[in-house]
Design brief:
Distance between the termini: 52 Å
Largest sheet: 2 strands, antiparallel
Mean pLDDT: 95
Number of helices: 5
Order of helices and strands: HEHHEHH
Oligomer: single chain
Shape: elongated
Strand content: under 5%
CATH class: Mainly Alpha
Helix content: over 70%
Structural class: mainly alpha
Length: 172
């Protein structure tokens, strides 16, 4: 379980790196007239992502979840693929990538990288990682609860983001 704890802590460190980048990008976007949408659901999103990491460790340690090699290694591959997809999104969006919904007027929509194939590839990465990370070490309750909670949150977040982007397109 030590290596699993290290994995979850590495994902936590990655989340902190994301927040640092997001804060820098938010400053850049707001300085260029960007407007933020979805402030109301943002705290719930932060809480859900923090709870995922805590619950992964809590369920594994407290419930004594065993490591099943076939499931664990395959889910680790999904976690790794989700990280690659997430950072591809970050790189493709550049300064426009954020954990918040901030739209800078006049900037064209991004259609390159993973956005050629998927409308919201970052959210696909989040969903895959949120289901797979707990399952690396058998934390199936966490995987189910995160997946259901994340789906409910995405039912709010994605329309918010699409609406903000559509409003920006209308102003251009």
């Amino acid at each position: 379980m030590i290596w699993y704890t290290a994995l979850v802590l590495a994902v936590a460190a990655e989340r902190i790196a994301e927040l640092v980048i997001a804060l820098r990008n938010a400053r850049w976007s707001l300085a260029r007239g960007g407007t933020e949408a979805g402030r109301g659901h943002y705290p719930a999103m932060v809480a859900l992502h923090a709870a995922l990491l805590v619950a992964c460790l809590a369920e594994t340690w407290l419930a004594g979840r065993p490591f099943h090699a076939l499931l664990g290694w395959s889910m680790l591959a999904v976690v790794a693929a989700a990280q690659v997809l997430r950072w591809w999104c970050v790189r493709t969006l550049g300064r426009c990538w954020n954990t918040r919904v901030i739209v800078v007027p006049g900037l064209p929509p991004v259609t390159g990288g993973p956005y050629r194939r998927l409308r919201h590839p970052n959210y696909a990465a989040v969903a895959a990682e949120g289901a797979a990370l707990p399952l690396v070490h058998g934390a199936w309750v966490t995987a189910v609860l995160f997946t259901v909670s994340n789906a409910a949150l995405m039912a709010v977040r994605i329309p918010c983001e699409d609406g903000a982007l559509a409003g920006a397109d209308a102003r251009v």
